[in-house]
């Protein structure tokens, strides 16, 4: 009877299947995986002059080279890196964020709400009731509203947002006819960033769908050409709003892990808060997310990790610039088209 196994091309032990592209035994498969995921850099102490037995048993440098020379390839995703126990905290942080982002993304693609609550009502646990979207056609204003609302839901699902210090009310000077208003720190954080978060998420969706500009979930321009009928807007300005952030993310080849971490780092801005207790909560959380991003970069990019981390921070300026353009366009559009009715939550944050 023919043997059910052949020889591993690396160590010549019995092999029953192909692993990472080559016929190999389980021992060589696990060795190669560990070297890649733990980012080890083994060197032969005999300058490659080891015997065959040494190469496949005692010399890790030679064994790894044999794996490479045989054609083994393995590109780990970040969750593969959890084999290193020291990185489990980073994996846990990412696991929560990726789950919440996947839920937000699914809501954008499959659901909607006809309810019209203010931001304050939403924060008082009057979450809007979502329904399955079937044949309903949404306008650009609907998409804008729902992107903002699902971003708010994302942030409100983070554990630290339930901290009592963030539910404290404080006086914040607003430059409008109301003069002074009273807001919770939750409101301050969400008002400052939920629109930016919605833009960032839309740009990430564009990257994943291999598009070069912001578009709605159903494939329409987020900011259509009809806007150009108002002389205050130029085609160049419109193109910048549509493509500036997406182009930067494509240039960086942003991963979903980097996206979710950058998103919460930007959200946790302690400079927005006045009292020490609330600042401490947000500052501590921002440090956790920043450390997780740096750890991720070091694990995935090795010696290039610090420079990758710095490159990712350059996104923050682009997001802010994109938001400033959108904010300016919204103000002008409201003046040019006063009959347009906006959802209450949109009016609260723009």
Automatic annotation (TrEMBL):
What the entry lists under InterPro entries is as follows:
HNF4-like_DBD (IPR049636), NHR-like_dom_sf (IPR035500), Nucl_hrmn_rcpt_lig-bd (IPR000536), Znf_hrmn_rcpt (IPR001628), Znf_NHR/GATA (IPR013088)
Q: Name one Pfam family in it.
A: zf-C4
PROSITE patterns, from UniProt? NR_LBD, NUCLEAR_REC_DBD_2, PROKAR_LIPOPROTEIN
Q: Which UniProt keywords apply?
A: DNA-binding, Metal-binding, Nucleus, Receptor, Transcription, Transcription regulation, Zinc, Zinc-finger
Q: Which Gene3D superfamilies match?
A: Erythroid Transcription Factor GATA-1, subunit A (3.30.50.10), Retinoid X Receptor (1.10.565.10)
Under the cellular component aspect of Gene Ontology, which terms does the record hold? nucleus
UniProt-listed SUPFAM superfamilies? Glucocorticoid receptor-like (DNA-binding domain), Nuclear receptor ligand-binding domain
GO terms (molecular function) for this protein are:
DNA-binding transcription factor activity; RNA polymerase II cis-regulatory region sequence-specific DNA binding; zinc ion binding
Where the record annotates domain Nuclear receptor, the positions are 5-79
The source's superkingdom equals Eukaryota
Recorded hits in SMART domains, A to Z, give: HOLI (SM00430), ZnF_C4 (SM00399)
Domain (NR LBD) ranges: 112-350
Where is it localised?
A: Nucleus
Which family is annotated? Belongs to the nuclear hormone receptor family.
Q: What is this protein called?
A: Nuclear receptor domain-containing protein
